[in-house]
Write a structure and sequence with these properties.
InterPro entries: AB_hydrolase_fold (IPR029058), RBBP9/YdeN (IPR010662)
Order of helices and strands: EHEHEHHEEHEH
Largest sheet: 6 strands, parallel
Radius of gyration: 15 Å
CATH topology of one domain: Rossmann fold
CATH architecture of one domain: 3-Layer(aba) Sandwich
CATH superfamily of one domain: Alpha/Beta hydrolase fold, catalytic domain
Number of helices: 6
Helix content: 25-40%
Shape: globular
Protein name: Alpha/beta hydrolase
Strand content: 15-25%
Number of strands: 6
GO molecular function: hydrolase activity
Structural class: alpha/beta
CATH class of one domain: Alpha Beta
Organism: Paraburkholderia franconis
Length: about 180
């Protein structure tokens, strides 16, 4: 099914996604893409972010896909493992999890709280973890371990940093194809 016909929940990471970010560009292109309305992008609290995601999914017409970046990926994992209602989980068709950050890594934001021990539970929906070979926030081995634990596919896009606006991906057609493959 084409992305134009999908309900997609966009989950940016720490400090939100700016104008040149692939998430923002996708939202501008597809009216059915909705960004999770986090109260505080600069001081993320895991439980709060998970509850906001749960409310967003509950208010959505299913099925939905997640387009998550960075801390948004960890939010999906924590939400599915500890916060999601069965009704909300049943609405999720799949998740694109891009640039998963390592909470134990030296670059992980000190302002983020509650994201420590990453859930090792298999996600109850299809998912693909996408990584860069030079992401300062999460190494290849960490992203592969998350993909294995979560039952996700794993894709590398080579040296693209944190797979954000600075990566120069534009509309990132490859990412759109991966997202559409889970519809």
């Amino acid at each position: 099914m084409a992305l134009e016909q999908q309900n997609v929940i966009v989950l940016p990471g720490y400090m939100n996604s700016g104008d040149g970010h692939w998430q923002t560009r996708w939202e501008a292109r597809y009216p059915s893409f909705v960004r999770v309305p986090m109260r505080d992008w600069d001081h993320p609290v895991c439980d709060e972010w998970c509850e906001t995601l749960n409310a967003t999914v509950a208010a959505s017409k299913g099925p939905v896909l997640f387009a998550a970046h960075s801390l948004g990926c960890l939010t999906v994992a924590f939400w599915a493992a500890r916060h999601a209602s069965n009704d909300a989980l049943a609405k999720v068709a799949g998740a694109l999890l891009v640039a998963v950050p390592d909470p134990a890594g030296p670059e992980f934001p000190a302002d983020a709280s509650g994201f420590g021990a990453v859930p090792q539970d298999r996600l109850p929906f299809g998912s693909i973890v996408v990584a860069s070979t030079d992401d300062p926030y999460g190494g290849v081995a960490f992203s592969q371990a998350c993909a294995a634990a979560w039952g996700s596919g794993w894709e590398s896009i080579g040296p693209r940093g944190h797979i954000n606006a600075d990566s120069g991906l534009g509309d990132w057609k490859e990412g759109q194809r991966w997202l559409a493959s889970m519809a």
